Structure formats: structure tokens, C-alpha cells
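Appendix B, Record 12. Input sequence as logged:
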Amino acid sequence: MPIVELDTDQALDTDLVGPVIRSGELAEAVIDAVAEDNPDTEVVVVDRDDYVRVHTRKECRLTLASLVKHLGRPYQLSLLEIDMPSFKGRLRTRVDEYVWFYDR
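Logged structural output:
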């Protein structure tokens, strides 16, 4: 599915979940990794200059393997929290995978 870039939060439905990442190299890698890890899901990206919202519907999976691939260097997934001031949904963390999910 494609990556859809929006310039407003108006389309951020309640069932969209995922990280809010500080803009930069890591954010770009997260966008590409989320697209890879959620192949049959539209990835919604809202760029707010200082930060980027990266969301999918109901569940958003990010694996360490895909993030390292797109970042081009080793990385510890737990370090993501330094550049993730917020997120939407609930979050389940593992050493090699983060999953944000919608839970009513």
C-alpha cells in the first residue's frame, strides 16, 4: 500500500495508530520501515516540520530489522523512545519489535 502524506491532522481518524517522531534521518527510516512492516496497509504521514506522525489503521508494526535496513546502521529499538515524544494508540514493546494498536 502507498504512503500518504498529509499536511493536516484532519484525516487522523480515531483508529489510526503509530509513533510521532522528531523530524530527521530517523523519522525517514521509520516511515520506510513501517511501510515495509505493514505491506497491505496504507501508511499515513503528517509532517509538522519539527515532528512527523506515522500512522496505520488499527495496528502499526515496526521491527528492528526493517528499521536497521532503512537507517543503514545498527540501532537499538529502545532508543526510539528518545526521539518519540508521543504516539497514538497503545504500545506493546519487545527488543526486536514495537506494535501500536487500537484498543477501545
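The first strand starts at residue 3 and ends at 6.
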